[in-house]
Amino acid sequence: MSGYRARRRAEDEAAREWKGGCRSYDVVKEFCIAVGVVLAITLVLTILFSSPDDPPSTIRQWSRADPVDFVTTAVSELDGSSTTAGYGPPYNHASSGQHEWFIRPQKWLGVSHPIDTTQDFVLAPLSSITGQPALQSAISSYKSASSKQQSAWADGYTKALNNAKANPDGSITVPPGSYGPLPTLMNSLVAFAQAGGLDGALLTSKQFYQTDYTKPLLFMADGGLLASRAKQQHLLGTQWGIMNETGSYPGQSWLWLYTFWYQIKPFSTSSNADILVMTVMAVLSLALVLIPLIPGIRDIPRWIPIYKLIWRDHYRFIGQRR
Amino acid sequence: MSVLSDKPAGVRRRSWTVALRERAVAALPPEKLLADKQPSYVSSWIYVFGVLSLASLVVIIGSGTILALKGPAWWHFTGVGHFFNSIHLWSVELFFFVMVIHLWGKYWMAAWRGGRVRTWVTGAVTFLVAIPCALTGYVSQQNFDSQWISAQAKDAMNAVGIGSFFNLLNFGQMYSYHVLLLPVAVVALVVAHVLLVRKYGVVPPFELRELKARAMAAQPEDG
Amino acid sequence: MAAIFNLNHPAHTVHWHFFQMSASNVVVIVLMVIVFVLAIAIPFPGGHEPGAEGS
Fold this sequence. Notes:
Structural class of chain B: mainly alpha
Oligomer: heterotrimer
Structural class of chain C: alpha+beta
């Protein structure tokens, strides 16, 4: 080991300062030429290919295109069975989130963006609709029922939605059954969504000026629309989608190693996949930064002498001189 | 006026300005900061990828500035806006393209040798900081791509706890990070990286053992 | 402003065992390797020309 260290130290000292020949060179001109070259290449690519701009989905579009999926999602938000409702921090306390051994950063950092899906996604927007006494009565009826009764209504209605039909006017029809006030609530919600009111209501629930799309995005993500669009564009995780872009545009190829871990066990079958993959990537990123200090990795350039190609002019010159 | 203050030593020591100036000029005298000579071994096309990375960053910031002038919705509704958005996207692709090739070249040259560890470190950290800078850009596009990327990537952020204060679904926050905070970080790192290159120079070639042996054999004997 | 080549259609994907990547990403990565190899292989104009200073 001392021989290795001595060689490394000698190599370091030898590389500290160049005492050999120099030649003239214009750094400012080189920079200007580089900017010109990059600008030219960028302009050519822009003219040839432009850039993608797939329009965003809205709750209005979603509820019109697939009212059954919309209502199914809305019921799961109401009864607390949706992904968001059971997510845990930073939205709620429904679960403690992902963990790695005893390390639970999701839980430790807490609920910073509280979302009550029952209230925020369903009851509050419905309560804002005026001039509909039947609706307000249905809301009161639901709120005053016991949680056991609410669950029974939701479970029955969810099963019935498997056989639901979308009507031409945008409403849905489910087989007859005992669903309490749920049909009234859901038909009103789908009409409100199809009119565009729910997009606005979820965005501006706190104040007029708003840039936080957390609520409308979480609501849509709980449904099937975003995922089905993503699948068509090869953007799903199982399609290595993290690296991809919409259309046939190049995406983020630098994320290849990040998405790779999600495809293999144990990450692909773990409910803690995200924290595990982020940990692996953090370690590898640290290793990248600290390559100069890692024996072995820092010696590979010496062992696989690509440098002989890079500096062949120099070595030929030195060899001839000597 | 000479670089070194003409004030007495005691006054010079108390002046932060003079101390900073003297340190800066000692570390990087003008002829090093803007050198007009380079070592003769810098003789490969691989060496241009550093300046190409810098040039790409300039085009990214330039096109980004124009997009920022007209606001985040502009590029969806005008051809000119879409044109500048395309320049911004392709210059980002080019930036990562040339930066990674630059990284490959520097790795195979073991460019950290001779006291240049900090040069490597600042370069690697720049690459790592550029990734979230790009991510915040992707989620600021205000189109389907932003919706999908933010809805997916939020799980990774939440899992490690940073989702509690870095909300990918919050357009306003992501736009601020993308337009100001992360570009400032990238530029600061790049400036540090370039100044370190100017200070310590481009790493010399490995000494070939066979050339060294021949040189030693050719040395005249003492006496 | 319409592009000359319209890339707004679902991407072709390259499948190899469990690995899959969009064709455009494959093109970018392959190009990077080619450019890296060319950058090292192609002779640099001027070659090794030491200036007046140094040995």
